[in-house]
Every structure is written in structure tokens, then in C-alpha cells.
Specification:
elongated; mainly alpha; 2 strands; 76% helix
């Protein structure tokens, strides 16, 4: 991978994270947007998954198909950081274990990873569709 590709992935990553943060902040002010749904596998925040998909779609558009793996890695790192914070705060409030935090969040973790991957893939696809055809 050349320096230009690395810069493009870095810009795509920063743009996706910035947009995700801004959309998450904006969604906090939309009435009813934080309705968690509980299912057999745990709790899911559909708005959060949509925010993730939109942000990673931008990243995929800017970074191309190589961004798909980057998007997945970004979400894994974000979830590791989130779980660490949950454990630190949870221990002070009530007895939280890694198992209980993962059990509560397993659906959201899965859906956010799927949303990131799908969003990045759609963005990369849109970029390829927009690129001028080289076969003339």
C-alpha cells in the first residue's frame, strides 16, 4: 500500500469518526431516537446502528474497498474502549462483570459491526459506481 492510499484511509477514518460523533450527538436531541429494543440476544439501539452505517458509508466512499476492514477494526476498538469504560463505571455503581456487560450489549455489538461493514461496503460500491470507466 502506497503513501497516497494510507492518507486516503486515514482521511476516510477521521471523516467517518467525525460524522459518527456528530450524528450521535444530533440523535440525542431527537425525541424518541434512543428507544432501545430488547430481544432474545440483548438490547439494540437501531438509531445507533443507522448512525454507524451512514458514517462508515462516508468512510467507504472516501477510502474505497480497503476501508471495509478499517471500518470493522474501528468498531472493534470503539467497543473495546466502551466495554472498558462500562466496567470501570459499573464497578463503582454495582457489581459488573465482563460477562454481564457483554451479555447486555451482545446484540448491539453485533449490529454495529454489521452496520459498519455494510455501510463501508455500500460507500465503496458507490465510489466504484461514480468512478469514470477505464474501459474505452
Amino acid at each position: 500500500m502506497n503513501e497516497s492510499s494510507m492518507k486516503r484511509l486515514l482521511i476516510a477514518s477521521l471523516a467517518a469518526l467525525l460524522v459518527m460523533g456528530l450524528l450521535a450527538l444530533a440523535s440525542a436531541y431527537i425525541p424518541g431516537a434512543k428507544n432501545m429494543t430488547a430481544g432474545a440476544l440483548g438490547h439494540v439501539d437501531p438509531v445507533n446502528s443507522l448512525v454507524t452505517a451512514i458514517a462508515m458509508c462516508l468512510g467507504g466512499y472516501l477510502g474505497g474497498k480497503r476501508f471495509i476492514l478499517v471500518a470493522l477494526l474501528l468498531m472493534v476498538v470503539m467497543w473495546i474502549a466502551t466495554i472498558i469504560v462500562m466496567l470501570q463505571v459499573g464497578v463503582q455503581v454495582e457489581a459488573k462483570t465482563l460477562g454481564s456487560v457483554l451479555a447486555y450489549n451482545r446484540s448491539q455489538i453485533l449490529f454495529s459491526l454489521l452496520a459498519a461493514t455494510a455501510g463501508a461496503a455500500i460507500g465503496a460500491w458507490l465510489q466504484m459506481k461514480r468512478a469514470p470507466s477505464q474501459a474505452h
